[in-house]
Amino acid sequence: MIHFTAGRDFERISAKSGLSMPELVLAIAIVGTIAALLITNIVSAIDEKKNMVALRKIQNSLSQVTQLVVNDNMSPVYWDLKDYDYNSAAKAYKYYKPYFQVLRECSNQAGCWKYPTTYLSGKVYLTSTEPYQYMFTLTDGMNVLVNVFSQAVIEDEFGVKVDGTSVVFIVDVNGDRRPNRVGSDIFAFVLRDETIVPAGEDSTYNCNTAGLGLACTARVMRDNYSISYY
To answer: pTM score, two decimals?
Structure first.
């Protein structure tokens, strides 16, 4: 590494390179900018790869656990769920909890989710806890929101056709770390009948940089766990 201790050091290098002092300063600035961009891109690619590994993990976990939940607690059709209802979200969590390794349990209080959370478009999605949610953090650091939404909301926003009110899991796969953005490190899964399906299973219309991103999970999985909609 070259350490510049005085103006004469610049002059020597300038003379050897054939560049004037302003040209040398500009060249160094350009090299520094390119290096910073390369480092940023490399870090971003590493983070995305980690997120995709985590996404695959939670998808498998939710699918397997759901089968155990159904076997032990009958079909969700009989859970008597109500949309935007805390008690319904808490009931779903109670059924799933025995099969998860939970690090912290926050109910609908702060501590298990990072704010603000944004849509894929960059618009704000969540700024604080919602009274109808149930939140917890897994031992691997993933933060999970348990929600119960109406058929219309699940079909319109999450792109999954369902027969009625059901459970939606929204997972921040890298936990408290940024960017806390739907479709980037936050993905959704829907309990349809007795199975878990990725949000966007039937429609990924809002999976674009101007949209919500809530229906991106299925697209990412179909693209071999890669993000191609930026």
So the answer is: 0.82
